[in-house]
Amino acid sequence: MEELTSNHAALGAMAQAITTLDAACAQLSSQELPAGQAAYFAWLAERTAQTLSRLQIHAADAVQRSGSHQLDTESLDAIADAGAAPTDEQLAALHGTCSLGRSSFKDAADLHSGWLGIAHGAALSRLAAAGSLIAKVTEAGERTTPDCPQLAAHFANRNVDPRPAIGAARAIRNAEADLPGPQARAQLEAQAVKLITQEPASAAKHLSGLITEQLQAQRPPEALFAEAGLFPRGTKGGLVIYQLKVFPHDAELIESLRAKIDNPNTIAGNREQLNELVHASYPNHAEPAASDEPAASDEPAPSDEPAASVEPGTPVAPMPPTPKEWDDAPSMPGWARTPAAEATEAEPPKPPSNLAPPPEQPFEDLSPALRHLTGLLAVLRANRVGGKNPGAGLIAPQVIVHLNYEKMLAGAASFASTENGLPLTAAEARTLMCNAGIYPAVLDGKGQPLDIGRSKRLFPPHMKRALAARDRGCLYPGCRMPASRCEADHVDPWEEGGQTRVDRGVLLCPMHHHARHAGLFSLVVAEGKPPAVLLPKFLDPDQQPRRNTYWFSAAEVLAA
Predict the structure, then answer these.
(1) Which residues contact 269 (CB under 8 A, 6 or more apart)?
(2) What does the pLDDT look like over 362-393, one tens digit per residue?
(3) What angle, rounded to 10 degrees, do the helices at 426-433 and 248-262 form?
(4) Rounded CA gap, 131 and 124, in Å?
(5) Where are the beta strands (DSSP E) in 329-418?
(6) With 0-12 CB in 10 A as exposed, 13-18 as middle and 19+ as buried, what is 170?
(7) How far is residue 442's CA from residue 218's CA, in Å, rounded to a whole number?
(8) pLDDT tens digits for range 39-73
(9) How far apart are CA 402 and CA 539, in angstroms?
């Protein structure tokens, strides 16, 4: 591509790019594309979005440093007239003149929102990102170094996605007032760059954890106790609202409860059991809403359909309205069938009519939030005097604490974390270890489980616990399936002589377990390191062995 040597050429190229992109989109969206071209279309669209994200921050910086908000009306009109198809003369006339009196916009953010139609909050965010990643503009109009120089160097690399750096700069900026000093900020920034570079899929989660740790480390226990608690927040829309603030070691009880309820293979997550709990707690949840219509008579309404014989005492379910036509006989329900429909399809013999209606299907349409609430309330009701809720008390949270043995002996501050990746202080870890029902999983400095037997064909429970302690969940990068819902797999296929050993086993969710055996990715083991995933080249051009770090704490990720 011809190198752009002037501002005129660069602005003209951008204008031409808009026209070209619009034309390309019109062409590609109006055609049936082959699979390869469609995939490349999607790749180019995403790559364009990355470039636009970088352009928006650089444009905000240019507006800020040039004082574009002071342009007079004639200059703004000239820009609007040029549009996306400017002539050379129009480009040459875009230097603009600043107003000596009152301008149309009071500052750069006002120009973004009032002229470009960007929400004011988004405009402020872009300008702040420019100050963090390009250059900061003082109140006197002087340009200084960016607030986040390490992230700025990453942002300036045209070969990487700028959006993680933008998000990291925003997170650090929001926490800046509570950070203990410049050294803590610089350390946090260095950790953010490392996370973005090495673990882009979970960088935002781990950076949030690092900031939380920084803020908690400088707060005395008295301040935490003063804010912890269960706070009623009134009633809204017919629901009572509570806010819950708990310590990390207490939060793990809730996270464990959520994980068990989400797993349909456990008693707690059994969908039929949850359905019974919902019906027991809210017996009228499925009843039709009250209306002003007159009550229906006990007598059946007149009908042209032949009456069905019903034996005395048989419960009669309410019949839904019959549609005028049903063009799919095999799917026609019994209440809608006529003799003509019966003749169109041979059906197996019907059960006797005096049997109870079939049970409702498992309550799969429960939202995750309501499913979690149902399980939590079941635990609270379990010890209620005279409580008769079916299944109450069947849900028992299980807390697993991961300890780094070498860090613990060295007295490091971050030697413990929960199964769900919540970091624990030394005091919180000791508190949990004093309680019954805690499973300690002790690891060495390389994240390998200690003292685990290796002999059987299938992975026995103690080996699966060891794999869960090491992998925490599905090994595939970016997967969020917890260990409780994963399957143990051999790195070396059993049919090819592989052994059932912890150091040659991994946890994979059912989907990625099948994907691995279908050849969609490989497992590799480097000397002295745990197994890792080798993604295909189109997903990872660098071909680096990778492990999923979603369930790890930020300290563990940075130390790996």
Answers:
(1) 260, 261, 262, 263
(2) 445 567 777 777 777 777 766 554 555 444 44
(3) 60
(4) 11
(5) 399-404, 416-418
(6) middle
(7) 28
(8) 999 999 999 999 999 999 999 999 998 889 999 98
(9) 31
